[in-house]
Amino acid sequence: MAFSIDNSEKFRSGYASNMTLDAVLNTLESVPQFNISVERGYQIGAPSCEKQYKMDFKITFHNQNDEIWLVKSTSSIRSDRLYGVEYFAQNIKLHDPNIAKILVVIPNSVNDKEIRYKNNYREKINSDGFISFIDEIYTVSEFRNEVISFATSNLDQGICSNILGKDAEKYVEELLVDTNNSLLWNDYENNFKTTKSASFNEFCELLTAVGLEQRHERIISVKATRDIPKLSNGGYPKTDVSFVIQTENDLIERNVSIKHTDSKTVTIHEGDINDVITALEIDPISTLADALKAFQLFGSEKKLKEEKPHLHAVLHSELPKFNEKLTELFLFGVNSPLVNHKIQIADLILLINNFDVFDRDSYVSLYVKNYKDSGQFGTPFKWTYPSKKRGKKIQIKGFTGYKK
Known about the structure:
The structure is a single chain. By secondary structure, the protein is α+β, with helices and mostly antiparallel strands. It has three domains: 9-151, Trna Endonuclease, Chain: A, domain 1, CATH 3.40.1350; 164-259, Trna Endonuclease, Chain: A, domain 1; 265-342 and 353-399, no CATH class. The chain has helices at residues 9-29, 79-95, 112-125, 140-151, 157-177, 179-186, 188-191, 200-209, 273-279, 287-298, 301-307, 309-318, 323-332, 360-371, and strands at residues 36-44, 53-61, 67-73, 99-106, 136-139, 219-225, 241-247, 251-259, 265-271, 348-351, 356-359, 382-384, 394-399. The strands form three sheets. Strands 1-2-3-4-5 form a five-stranded mixed beta sheet. A five-stranded mixed beta sheet has the order 6-7-8-10-11. A three-stranded antiparallel beta sheet has the order 9-13-12. Helix 11 (301-307) crosses helix 12 (309-318) and helix 13 (323-332) packs across helix 14. The radius of gyration is 25 Å and the shape is elongated.
């Protein structure tokens, strides 16, 4: 929502920036696994003196020995404003040894000039020839990522991956339907001073990826949902968020698969090999089908080579011909016999760590090019079996990094 009060534009801009960050912190604080607490209006002073040194937010990370970060929200990164924050930060660190970091955060919706100011000051902070008591300057989305990363740094990897995945899906759904983002997209110049956003950059990335151009395509409405029906076997589809954008000239529907992980490889498919044979339209009585069924039976390339060397050779010679179709199936759900609604097949893939968005065809080409020599059987995938299901199912692991 847009925040507006009867006062000067400057005051309204600062207030809206503060409320934007406050809303993000409220959301993060509500996630039990993050285990953070947020206080508003931190202040401290010298002994027996007025508490004159202030910051907007105090964040305590209870999973990290109660480490404390202070945050100053601002709508502008001009040097005169930052020097005031520096003065407060210097004295806060002098009088409160419990403070680990002091951060400055600006909305994602600031203009290019403010982003340049931010980047220039960030370089100063990290240089040897400049003394700063501010530890870092972030946009709201950068700050959000830092908080989540630190809050989950001590969690078990499996638990952490699940939390981060669910958080990413919710984040994408919410940024799509945030009316502030649509307002900024439709008329940035008239709205950016008092309409603030924690995710406008990401909103623009997604809309650009589906072919829309800011200033040329006016948005009428955006609908998004994480409520995607399960596959016919009860499993989860590749689509994490589906959205519909109504512009003045078009109706755009897309399904996005969201990837959020720090692991080099992740499980991207589990199931009966017969589903793969069907999806690839392989003759079920062909030698290649026999080889795939044999792999499922033995559960490993090593065992297959020992027991059925001729079928092992067939996989090496024939499977690479299906690399594009395998990637479409394992990453996007294309042609899966388990799909019962088109919403379950992804059109886009979003790598949330850097918020890189790719359409299906582009990513399939990129993925195969980068990993065709890294997997097994000449494919860009690792082939194995799920725990305790050798002979019954296969498990496919995909690579998470990429090269542009």
